[in-house]
Amino acid sequence: MNLIGWITFPFRYSFSKLKRKFGKLDLVRMEILLAYGNENGIFIKGRLVEAYKQSKPSAQKTAFQNFIATLRRYAGNSISDVQVKLQFLHIEQLLMSNVEGLFETKLPISITDQLSNDYAKLTLIEDEGIVAENITIKFKITRYTTNSPIGIISDIDDTVIVSHATTLGRKLWLSISKNAYTRRPFPGVSTFYKYLTNDGKNPIFYVSSSDWNLFELIQDFLSYREIPKGPILLKDPHVTLKNIWKSGGGSHEHKLEKISHLMNLFPNTKFILIGDSGQHDPELYTKIIERFPEQVKAVYIRRIKKVDKEREDRLNSYNHTIPVAWVTNSSEALSHAKSFLEL
């Protein structure tokens, strides 16, 4: 979670409980974070927060205006212990929001028709002190075929977007002073990812240790920079003394779990893994290769700092069966992909 989020969470949680108790809670907003699946099942994740007003980001916003927008993003209180009703096809399911306002479900389905963009409906169950901004929302579920030959799994920070994730002060400054329109992508990322996805034919998934409060910013950033869109799998916050001072840090085991989930969901797909050398991507992708050796087509690691030889050698040991490329920029990665990969 962003540093501001970690610090303010206990106050936001307690404050929302008190406001609800005394009937002072603002309208409750339902937000859909994930809605995707395949022929056999779908995955839905969302959250409940107090509705808050947020100005639209633009390249003209000042650092102060972006700082105020960041405060608003984290000031919205999560709404816990509230039910929502999910309706999809013939399925109805009641879900309960947790302490961070998050709810999720995995639904097995059996659909034999051609893959399409299906729609589901979510209804807030109003209770004492709970009034919906919109009582019902309709949203799209994107389904990908389990027979997709190629898929892409990419990190975000310092892989797609310049974040300085290994330097707390610089990352915090970027987080609070910039917006989706003024954050910088690495040059050439859009071209490289469009090539890998074959202009949208191959699915792409983004897995990051950023928290869900940054979901909309990341989504807007990808759209504005014309980087291929795909499900964004972020980190559920867990407040501990160990990681309260780390922005997007703490344990990265959730990334291993989420990538393993994608490998199991699409067992016939060979994935291209993209990350950077700043944190734990080399070790993470080594573990993925060990677990799913037949499902990794290639690995790209952007060098953003010196990597000790032992870390590099362990990943490189698979280079005789899986292309492993350590690159300094996206042009270098694109040249490698065009030379070594059959897409």
TrEMBL record:
Pfam families: APP1_cat (PF09949). InterPro entries: APP1_cat, Mg2+_PAP. It comes from the Bacteria. It comes from Belliella filtrata. Residues 150-303 form the Phosphatidate phosphatase APP1 catalytic domain. The lineage of its organism: Bacteria, Pseudomonadati, Bacteroidota, Cytophagia, Cytophagales. This is DUF2183 domain-containing protein.
